[in-house]
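Tokens as discussed.
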């Protein structure tokens, strides 16, 4: 089964895009609500947004399937990443809007969730881990860049409008202070986008699990408010907006490689 696509690069940088996928097997899609069949909570177009990273020598890992099949950025035991706050789970039953993902009585049971973990979640993570090991073996270090995007206003998940660029380093534990400072300096040097470091989105499971500066693996998550590069209602990619944003993302990735 085609679970993911990996482009192997030459630099000590792996860009992981775990919510870029949109495919939903028909047996699952038939149980979804009409609104959920549009897979609205996709990190739309992030693989296109980050395509330029190949020019920097980055490896890029992209899944095929939607987070509605299984969320690759959640722990396999489905422990909440943000206790006390609204969020969605390993096999989401609630959309970011608060609406249901499944028709009544059609939610996956524990056995189905476990099967999805083995079929979709495990291969992605096995490959991610193997690629990090390969990169670290060749370069002595690896930087894992988690590329994400989300609607800029989602009352179910957070109050008010989200800053356009949300850098997460698991409160400073997933990378060295020097790397976090370089990235913060890039954000501070531009005035086109609002930004925050370790705000509402501090990094999901991948950032927290794989980031281990002591062994030379640093992980960073960038959550982007989607209106910075696309139309949030139609999901249309807006090339002019995206090109402007890509210039800032490039500077961030260059700082990560410094």
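Sequence:
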């Amino acid at each position: 089964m085609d679970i993911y696509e990996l482009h192997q690069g030459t630099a000590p940088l792996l860009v992981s895009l775990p919510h870029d996928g949109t495919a939903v097997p028909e047996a699952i899609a038939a149980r979804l609500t009409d609104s959920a069949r549009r897979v609205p909570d996709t990190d739309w177009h992030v693989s296109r947004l980050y395509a330029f990273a190949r020019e920097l020598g980055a490896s890029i890992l992209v899944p095929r399937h939607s987070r509605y099949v299984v969320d690759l950025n959640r722990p396999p035991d489905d422990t909440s990443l943000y206790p006390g706050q609204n969020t969605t789970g390993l096999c989401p039953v609630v959309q970011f809007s608060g609406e249901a993902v499944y028709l009544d009585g059609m939610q996956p049971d524990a056995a189905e969730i476990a099967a999805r973990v083995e079929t979709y979640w495990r291969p992605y993570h096995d490959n991610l881990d193997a690629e990090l090991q390969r990169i670290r073996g060749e370069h002595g270090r690896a930087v894992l860049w988690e590329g994400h995007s989300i609607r800029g206003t989602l009352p179910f998940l957070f109050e008010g409008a989200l800053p356009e660029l949300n850098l997460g380093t698991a409160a400073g534990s997933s990378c060295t202070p020097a790397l976090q400072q370089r990235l913060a300096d890039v954000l501070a040097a531009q005035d086109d986008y609002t930004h925050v470091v370790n705000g509402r989105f501090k990094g999901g499971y991948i950032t927290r699990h794989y980031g281990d500066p002591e062994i030379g693996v640093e992980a960073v998550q960038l959550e982007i408010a989607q209106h910075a590069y696309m139309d949030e209602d139609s999901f249309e990619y807006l090339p002019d907006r995206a090109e402007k944003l890509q210039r800032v993302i490039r500077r961030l990735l260059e700082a990560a490689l410094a």
